[in-house]
Design a protein that fits this description.
- The complex is a heterodimer of chains A (306) and B (223).
- With 306 residues, chain A is of the alpha+beta class.
- Chain A has three domains: 79 residues, Phosphatidylinositol 3-kinase Catalytic Subunit, Chain A, domain 1 (Ubiquitin-like (UB roll)), CATH 3.10.20.90; 100 residues, no CATH class; 121 residues, no CATH class.
- Helices cover 49% and strands 11% of the residues of chain A.
- In chain A, the strands form two sheets. In chain A, strands 2-1-4-3 form a four-stranded mixed beta sheet, covered by helices on one side. A two-stranded antiparallel sheet of chain A has the order 5-6.
- In chain A, helix 2 runs parallel beside helix 4, helix 3 packs parallel to helix 5 and helix 4 packs antiparallel against helix 7.
- Chain B is mainly alpha-helical.
- Chain B has one domain.
- Helix content of chain B is 75%, strand content 0%.
- In chain B, helix 1 packs antiparallel against helix 2.
- Chain B is globular and about 60 Å long.
- Chain B starts with a helix and ends in a 9-residue tail after the last helix.
- The chains are: A alpha+beta (306), B mainly alpha (223).
- The interface between A and B is medium-sized, with 14 and 10 residues.
- Chain B: It comes from Aotus nancymaae (Ma's night monkey).
- Chain B: Belongs to the very long-chain fatty acids dehydratase HACD family.
- Chain B: This is Very-long-chain (3R)-3-hydroxyacyl-CoA dehydratase.
- Chain B: One of its GO terms (biological process) is fatty acid elongation.
- Chain B: Its main location: endoplasmic reticulum.
């Protein structure tokens, strides 16, 4: 068997010595052994590396295959309290769903007392509530039943950052759309119908992509494959774009912004677009790095442009 | 005269040493102008008006600093944006407060801080740093930061009644884009934001001071 010593990456202090470890043990198993001696550091918050400033080793890596001698020296870094992605997503999305409805039903203390529990006389306001709520219900269901997460956890502070963003913007948008002084779109029913069509198409598109990505990866595995268009026409966007789910998401919000003609919604779309472009570019880059035969026509998020 | 001088100095160099020398000279020029004004007029009234063009011009160009000067982007960023905010959105836009004493307070604080800071950079880059400049750079701020902040906050506070009365920079409902903005409340929030931000900047400088002047090794928190 091999020996494994674990040192603190910053102070080089010897934290743990494991003797007689099986050569074909995985990093995940070593993490479990380490937790036994230091129970406050559960596996999800351990980062083990060969070099104090190097990249983290993956859970699937096998001890035998690492460039080490009979005694492997691993450096440990505490990633901080972790929280599961599922928990984060559910909290992020349940907030806006609930918050928007508080404004829609004009719960007391938001608008003037004479407006408490009144209903807007504009059709578009009711439509907007249905669309917004549908969007977040869809996201919640996808989190529970569709998505397959490659990482189990993320740092705890992310949940505060993310919730502030989602909940804050939801409240800001909902305040104006459901306001007694709300002004309906300039071009009336035409504008609303067009925007609604954009929204529905993009929601269907986004869902189709999520399903296609799920089918790409069998349950429990962490394999990565190039996504390709399927029989579903919404997935044909894969021909032009690496992350059509983001493309459709931006489209949905643009639709919602046109439908409500509300500047905060447009700003939310812009911020979301910026963030998703960063993610799409990152994903696109890692696809290019991983697959030699990656389709050259594809752009990260906007066909031909971005 | 000052505008031509500033422009000339600016053209002199956008590279590191060029910039710091330019900036340092400019702040010295401004300091001299302020002292001269006070000696001639015996009052601070009208001081802001006489220096405002170059102050605005130069403070806006300090945006470049976020990329050129090798310190934390976040710290420099916060400092530069608060300066630009004060110069353009407060003193430039709200004329009645230009003669407030608090304006002189932060102008003096900024001037002295910047002269020290830029001389520090210039001499460091030229590898000839006199100890007293290093000492000044890492000790003056202890008084100057709070003085500057006090000046800024008092100025904003003085501007509040005017902002409320005129409803400037504000949008009310109903309007076509279904949005509203109240500059008065924005200013209140800005004042409140000094509470978390100022201590962070202050303690950052205190940590730098311990490291540089007393050679303390500080283990930085990794992110």
């Amino acid at each position: 068997g091999k020996h494994v010593e674990i040192l603190d990456a910053k102070t080089r202090e010897k934290l743990c010595f494991l003797d007689k470890v099986e050569p074909h043990a995985t990093i995940a198993e070593i993490k479990n052994l380490f937790t036994k001696t230091h129970p406050q550091w559960y596996p999800a918050r351990q980062s083990l590396r060969l070099d104090p400033k190097g990249k983290s080793l993956k859970d699937e890596d096998v001890l035998q295959k690492l460039p080490v001698g009979t005694t492997a020296t691993l450096y440990f870094r505490d990633l901080g309290a972790q929280i599961s992605w599922v928990t984060v997503f559910l909290t992020e999305y349940a907030g806006p769903l609930f918050i928007y409805l508080l404004f829609y039903f004009r719960v007391p203390f938001i608008y003037g007392h004479k407006y408490d529990f009144t209903s807007s006389r504009h059709t578009v306001v009711h439509l907007a509530c249905i669309c917004h709520s549908f969007h977040y219900v869809k996201r919640l269901l996808e989190t529970l039943f569709v998505h397959r997460f490659s990482h189990g956890t993320m740092p705890l502070r992310n949940i505060f950052k993310n919730c502030t963003y989602y909940w804050g913007f939801a409240a800001w948008m909902a305040y104006y759309i459901n306001h007694p002084l709300y002004t309906p779109p300039t071009y009336g029913a035409q504008q609303v119908k067009l925007a609604l069509a954009i929204f529905v198409i993009c929601q269907l598109g986004n869902f189709s992509i999520h399903m296609a990505l799920r089918d790409l990866r069998p349950a429990g595995s962490k394999t990565r494959k190039i996504p390709y268009p399927t029989k579903n026409p919404f997935t044909w966007l894969f021909l032009l774009v690496s992350c059509p789910n983001y493309t459709y998401e931006v489209g949905s919000w643009i639709g919602f912004a046109i439908m409500t003609q509300c500047l905060p919604v447009a700003l939310f779309s812009l911020v979301g677009f910026t963030q998703m472009t960063i993610w799409a570019k990152g994903k696109h880059r890692s696809y290019l790095k991983e697959f030699r035969d990656y389709p050259p026509l594809r752009m990260p998020i906007i066909p031909f442009l971005l | 005269f000052f505008s031509y001088l500033s422009f000339f100095l600016l053209r002199q160099g956008l590279c590191c040493t060029g910039w710091t020398t330019v900036a340092q000279t400019w702040w010295l020029v401004l300091a001299i102008a302020m002292v001269r004004f006070y000696m001639e007029k015996g009052t601070h009234r009208g001081l802001y008006k006489s220096i405002q063009k170059t102050l605005k011009f130069f403070q806006t160009f300090a945006l470049l600093e976020v990329r050129i000067i090798p310190t934390s982007v976040l710290v420099t960023g916060v400092q530069v944006s608060s300066r630009i905010f004060m110069v353009w959105l407060i003193t430039h836009s709200i004329k009645p407060i230009q003669n407030e004493e608090s304006v002189v307070l932060f102008l003096v604080a900024w001037t002295v801080t910047e002269i020290t800071r830029y001389s520090f950079y210039t001499f460091s880059l030229l590898d000839h740093l006199p100890y007293f400049i290093k000492w000044a750079r890492y000790n003056f701020f202890i008084i100057l930061y709070p003085v500057g902040v006090a000046g800024e906050l008092l100025t904003i506070y003085a501007a509040l009644p005017y902002v409320k009365k005129t409803g400037m920079f504000s949008i009310r409902l109903p309007n076509k884009y279904n949005v509203s903005f109240d500059y008065y409340y924005f200013l209140l929030i800005t004042m409140a934001s000094y509470i978390p931000l100022f201590p962070q900047l202050y303690f950052h400088m205190l940590r730098q001071r311990r490291k540089v002047l007393h050679g303390e090794v500080i283990v930085e928190k990794d992110d």
